[in-house]
Amino acid sequence: MSMKRIKEVRRGPKDGASDDGGFFSPKPAARVWDWEKDVSAHPDDTFAAYAPSAKYVTEALLTHPKFGKGVVVEVEPQRATVLFQDGPKKLAHGLA
Prior knowledge:
Low-confidence stretches: none
Number of helices: 1
Mean pLDDT: 84
Structural class: mainly beta
Number of strands: 5
Helix content: under 10%
Strand content: 25-35%
Strand order of the largest sheet: 1-2-3-4-5
């Protein structure tokens, strides 16, 4: 009776080759946002007024009528996660 051998599958760089930043390379660590350091240090004139029709990008500074000053930490197609002093909030953006 013969035994079936399973071929070992190796993924990633072969033979200890250096990592070239390809598909199998580890992702860089996500940035940790701090409201005190990333938002409160900026002067008031650098903040744009929040509007649901405006498109936002990561690291954009904005001011909201209810939540106050914030920084955009993540952008999705129709939502932006904004870090305010009270914590992160998901806001609409890019609405027609």
